């Protein structure tokens, strides 16, 4: 269970402990995600993306592109689905400080934090801090509390909550809360220090909790609004609502509650707004560059989220970090490696190589 995510060593095959410093922040942040292939632990670049997803209770996991292919990280078990690959999240906390942990239960519609009101329940008599204190005292034990006059029992060993009258069980999740150290701070030291650019939020990604508890971005070819259009409406009225359509169904997005409702069936899904960090250029720097690949029909195609897992904006960000480096991305069926020095993309399964170009606009 995710109660084991914050640890400081990994037991090797010969039972030797590989120690890590416990009080050293990494690039201004107090966590680090790592993958192990064989006996070597390697940090994951731009792991603020993983952390942002992990801190949301509704996120089941995330797929990342690596030189070993696409790796899926299961947030509940903190394991990778790839044989021979391990994953861990290290926590580097100053002495005397602890991580702000949230405890959540899955009600009929949403993941709800203890101490708040669920979609079909009263607020509980305990908070995340109360549950965390009991868990820290006995990670394999149980904890009893009440909601109104109804008694409940939390079982930390199975990460479930049980109604002691009806016997109904619900799943639990324990996740760190998103802190001010998450995101842009972790990127500062890696970016070039020039007068024409700086790190910051370059936009926002709007997503809803889709099938299989996977976050799905609002995109124009699926929905009547994409992330950029939703963000514009949000800025106009952050407490308002937005009506939109997906196929034949109409929905209402509630900005204040951060959820969407199917107007016909009443089904409610969680919504989130995630900052996109990148390089912000001054007005004198001009527009962002456009990245394209040469398709098999001889035409140049733009990189966009409707085609693959990345966009021109994100490629440009990686390029600014290391103009001689590489990055990986995926489409529905394949994973690719984009080489900035060779200006090519390579299919990691078939080996097919295509030319890439960067257009200054």
From TrEMBL:
SMART domains reported for this sequence: WWE
Record's keyword terms, sorted: Nucleus
**Sorted alphabetically, which PROSITE patterns does this protein's record hold?**
WWE (PS50918)
Q: In which pathway does it act?
A: Protein modification; protein ubiquitination
**Listed InterPro entries:** ARTD-AVP, WWE-dom_subgr, WWE_dom, WWE_dom_sf
* Cellular compartment(s): Nucleus
Is the keyword Nucleus assigned to this protein? yes
Gene Ontology cellular-component terms for this entry are:
nucleus
Instruction: Enumerate the Pfam families for this protein.
Output: WWE, WWE_4
Highest taxon in the source lineage:
Eukaryota
GO molecular function annotation = NAD+ poly-ADP-ribosyltransferase activity; NAD+-protein mono-ADP-ribosyltransferase activity; zinc ion binding
Domain WWE positions: 89-174, 192-273, 276-358
The record's comment on protein family reads: Belongs to the ARTD/PARP family.
The protein's matches in PANTHER family, at most eight in alphabetical order, are given as: NOVEL PROTEIN, POLY [ADP-RIBOSE] POLYMERASE
Protein name per UniProt: WWE domain-containing protein
Source organism of the structure: Oreochromis aureus
Q: What is the lineage of its organism?
A: Eukaryota, Metazoa, Chordata, Craniata, Vertebrata
């Amino acid at each position: 269970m995710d109660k084991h995510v914050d640890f400081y060593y990994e037991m090797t095959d010969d039972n030797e402990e590989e120690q890590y410093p416990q009080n050293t922040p990494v690039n201004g942040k107090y966590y680090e995600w790592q993958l192990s292939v064989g006996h070597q632990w390697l940090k994951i670049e731009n792991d603020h993306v993983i952390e942002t997803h992990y801190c949301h209770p509704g996120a089941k996991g995330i797929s990342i592109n690596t030189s070993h292919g696409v790796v899926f990280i299961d947030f509940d078990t903190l394991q990778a689905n790839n044989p021979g690959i391990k994953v861990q999240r290290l926590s580097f906390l100053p002495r005397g400080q602890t991580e702000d942990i949230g405890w959540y239960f899955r009600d009929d519609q949403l993941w709800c934090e203890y101490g708040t009101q669920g979609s079909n329940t009263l607020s509980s008599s305990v908070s995340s801090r109360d549950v965390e204190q009991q868990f820290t005292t006995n990670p394999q034990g149980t904890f009893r509390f009440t909601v109104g006059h109804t008694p409940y029992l939390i079982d930390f060993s199975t990460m479930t909550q049980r109604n002691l009258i009806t016997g109904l069980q619900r799943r639990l999740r324990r996740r760190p809360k998103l802190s001010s150290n998450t995101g842009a701070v972790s990127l500062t030291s890696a970016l070039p220090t020039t007068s024409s650019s700086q790190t910051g939020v370059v936009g926002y990604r709007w997503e809803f909790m889709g099938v299989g508890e996977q976050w799905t971005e609002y995109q124009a070819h699926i929905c009547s609004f994409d992330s950029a259009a939703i963000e514009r409406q949000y800025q106009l009225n952050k407490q308002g609502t937005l009506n939109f359509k997906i196929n034949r169904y109409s929905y209402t997005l509630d900005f204040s509650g951060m959820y969407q409702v199917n107007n016909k069936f009443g089904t409610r899904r969680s919504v989130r707004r995630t900052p996109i960090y990148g390089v912000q250029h001054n007005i004198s720097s001009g527009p962002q560059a456009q990245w394209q690949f040469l398709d098999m029909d001889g035409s140049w195609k733009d990189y966009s989220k409707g085609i693959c897992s990345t966009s021109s904006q994100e490629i440009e960000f990686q390029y600014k970090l290391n103009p001689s480096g590489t990055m990986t991305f995926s489409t529905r069926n394949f994973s690719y490696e984009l080489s900035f020095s060779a200006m090519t993309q390579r299919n990691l399964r078939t080996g097919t190589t295509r030319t890439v170009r960067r257009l200054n606009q």
